Structure to design on (586 residues):
């Protein structure tokens, strides 16, 4: 049957939220196409978790228990086998690093067209058309597939909605390719640095490269402290990778998704990878010395200025206001 | 061992990028080497200098218009020993899969032990080409790597994925795309810039590389892109130029107060 196959990313047996969103999106599209959406999990995922994909719209769930998870090639082998056996037209991924890798590998292997960073999908003439922002989100481009298509969603682009009941889980055995043995996961999901909670904060002060150095985060800590209880400090991927701030405080594509009442972006340029993790914030203030920084395009209040000057002054002003 | 670095020429960061009349990126303005690729070249040079494993040669490879020579000169000034340019009109308009196929064919001529590239291009924002090239070559691949250690025929790589930092072993030959946190690329010396044009630059056609014409270009691509539209504009926020900081913070506090955020 022609249909849609969704790869569901898992970690320690739990299914990724963006994958649930991809299943919901696929189920809706399959309905419009008059076909079914199926899902596949790779690795040791129990019946309850795998079957729960049915609640988000998967008519059937496949499970490749013996294939290693956390690296792409074994998953490409599994998805390519399912495409060969079931003649799907499309594969949809919820995004993320593995979603990009598996989707790209699958497209190359089966000769499908590929679209990354997809933010919307529609049905036209019995086919899927993928929409993605290009050129720094200044334009939306539409991808029309000549044959089969692989669609990789942007982080948080697809919403997970429950629409059905648990699906039956079918175990499959796939002979892995030679390449699959050449990539081995040694350690997965290592947390580095202190454990901090940013997801429950009402006010989040986030710092980027513009803070200059690890010590620059004191400016963010001070402002958060001035706001008082319910305020926390977060960071961009660039500064986490640079070792300025712990991983648990990272906001964006490979970090956490936050939506506080107030988000203060200090010295953050506003790259897409960051934006997808914080654009749901109710009020966004950005402070950046570069007037052309993309962050100003999606902030409610933008301050073009030096964080070293503005942040301490703002901290004092917030303290004074709180004290009054 | 031999390292191939895939590079790309992209519109300079300062140039406003736009789509031309044929639905492709307008590449007429100032161009530069894709900033992410400079990290891949630096990673290759550090492996060569590190001495853990002897590196005989670093080759920079690109597919692009004739003008892309400049990007290759820059790659050589940053440490590549020579470069290869696939410049053929047949390749223009290729999608990710067709481009990956063409690059894989170029790499087959070189049979490198390691293929490095930047994790994304400044203009395409795709993250996917490394995995596509790896698949066509039959090499294992990893993307967004921020740390590499080499021992014998195996690289131990670290990268940030959905759940934290992952450590992965990958056997050579392999394709690895690197993130910008992997290193701080050095600036080329004046001598290296002057010498770059004297290093070998080989220009090849699709026939030279054994690339089948019907698998590249717009006709060989599996998607048609078009119908470009502007996204809905978010109601523009207020912008304050900080000239007098005490006045600026007064405005911020008033703004916060108005929204009961303080």
């Amino acid at each position: 049957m022609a249909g849609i196959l969704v790869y569901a990313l898992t970690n320690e047996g739990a299914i990724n939220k963006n994958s649930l969103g991809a299943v919901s999106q696929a189920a809706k599209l399959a309905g419009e196409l008059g076909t079914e959406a199926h899902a596949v999990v790779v690795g040791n995922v129990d019946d309850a978790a795998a079957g729960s994909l049915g609640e988000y719209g998967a008519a059937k769930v496949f499970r490749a228990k013996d294939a290693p998870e956390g690296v792409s090639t074994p998953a490409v082998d599994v998805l390519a086998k399912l495409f060969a056996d079931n003649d799907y037209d499309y594969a949809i991924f919820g995004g993320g690093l593995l979603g990009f890798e598996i989707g790209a590998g699958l497209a190359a292997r089966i000769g499908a067209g590929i679209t990354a960073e997809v933010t919307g999908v529609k049905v036209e003439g019995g086919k899927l058309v993928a929409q993605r922002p290009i050129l720094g989100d200044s334009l939306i481009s539409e991808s029309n597939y000549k044959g089969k298509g692989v669609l990789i969603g942007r982080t948080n682009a697809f919403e997970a909605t429950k629409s059905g009941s648990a699906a039956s889980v079918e175990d499959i055995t796939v002979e892995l390719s030679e390449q699959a043995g050449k990539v081995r996961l040694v350690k997965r999901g290592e947390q580095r640095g202190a454990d901090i909670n940013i997801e429950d904060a009402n006010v989040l002060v986030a710092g980027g490269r513009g803070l200059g150095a690890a010590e620059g985060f004191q400016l963010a800590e001070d402002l958060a402290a001035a706001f008082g209880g319910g305020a926390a400090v977060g960071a961009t991927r660039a500064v986490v990778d640079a070792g300025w701030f712990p991983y648990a405080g990272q906001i964006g594509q490979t970090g956490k998704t936050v939506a506080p009442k107030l988000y203060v972006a200090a010295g953050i340029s506003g790259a897409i990878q960051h934006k997808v993790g914080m654009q749901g914030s109710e009020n966004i203030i950005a402070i950046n010395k570069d007037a052309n920084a993309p962050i100003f395009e999606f902030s409610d209040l933008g301050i073009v200025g030096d964080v070293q000057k503005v942040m301490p002054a703002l901290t004092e002003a917030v303290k004074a206001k709180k004290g009054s | 061992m031999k390292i191939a670095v895939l590079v790309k020429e992209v519109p300079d960061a300062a140039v406003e990028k736009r789509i031309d009349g044929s639905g492709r990126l307008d590449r007429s303005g100032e161009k530069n080497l894709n900033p992410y690729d400079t990290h891949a070249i630096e990673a290759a040079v550090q492996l060569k200098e590190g001495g853990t494993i002897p590196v005989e040669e670093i080759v920079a490879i690109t597919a692009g218009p004739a003008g892309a020579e400049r990007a290759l000169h820059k790659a050589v000034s940053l440490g590549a020993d020579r470069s290869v340019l696939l410049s053929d009109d047949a390749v223009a308009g290729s999608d990710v899969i067709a481009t990956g196929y063409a690059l894989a064919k170029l790499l087959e001529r070189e049979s490198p032990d390691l293929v490095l590239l930047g994790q994304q291009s400044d203009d395409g924002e795709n993250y996917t080409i490394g995995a596509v090239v790896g698949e066509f070559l039959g090499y294992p691949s990893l993307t967004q790597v921020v740390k590499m250690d080499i021992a014998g025929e195996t690289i131990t790589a670290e990268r940030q994925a959905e759940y934290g930092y992952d450590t992965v072993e990958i056997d050579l030959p392999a394709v690895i795309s690197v993130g910008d946190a992997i290193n701080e690329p050095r600036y080329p010396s004046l001598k290296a810039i002057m010498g770059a044009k004297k290093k070998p630059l080989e220009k090849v056609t699709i026939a030279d590389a054994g690339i089948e014409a019907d698998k590249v270009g717009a006709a060989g691509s599996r998607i048609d892109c078009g119908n470009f539209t502007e996204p809905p504009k978010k109601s523009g926020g207020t912008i304050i130029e900080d000239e007098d900081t005490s006045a600026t913070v007064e405005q911020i506090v008033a703004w916060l107060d108005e929204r009961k955020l303080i």
About this structure: The first helix of chain B runs from residue 35 to 50. Chain B touches chain A through 78 residues (CB under 8 Å).
